[in-house]
Amino acid sequence: MLPNYTDLYVGRGETAEWIGSLRGQCYPDMFLAVPPVRLALTATEENLFRAAVADALEVWENDRLGQGYPRYLGWPWPWLTSHKSRWVIAFAPGAGAVFVTVGGGVAWHPIDPHDPRFPEGDDPLGPPDMLAWLRNPAAPPSVPLPLMRDPVTGFWTPAGDAW
Known about the structure:
The protein is of the alpha+beta class. The chain has helices at residues 28-33, 35-41, 46-62, 130-135, and strands at residues 4-10, 17-24, 66-70, 87-92, 97-102, 109-110.
């Protein structure tokens, strides 16, 4: 199985705060089977989401599911937004809920904390025009996501640079 990539945020949109990423067995069934990831998905408070994500990044590696990349290691991917990652998971503080989308996704799917499920079917979150998405994953109608920039310089952050 090829590795998948998942990015985790607090907030949605261009001002969301990236707090970590996962690489490896990033599939909905696996997310729900790993206790700290499941806890993050069902969080209704920001501090709980952040703590669960911090634990998930460690457990992911300890359980040999792939790699976990906390924020202090810097943006891990050679692309500049999450539009090319398979999954994007975000805690929305105003809603007190977790939402998911896919790379190039056109909509956010709310996760029910009492019955966490990912959308089923023919990828209802994905880009309607795959060829257009391949040319420019961040182009509308994809959901807005932040560019990874160094907060001091404002320049794009290359993979592996720490903040």
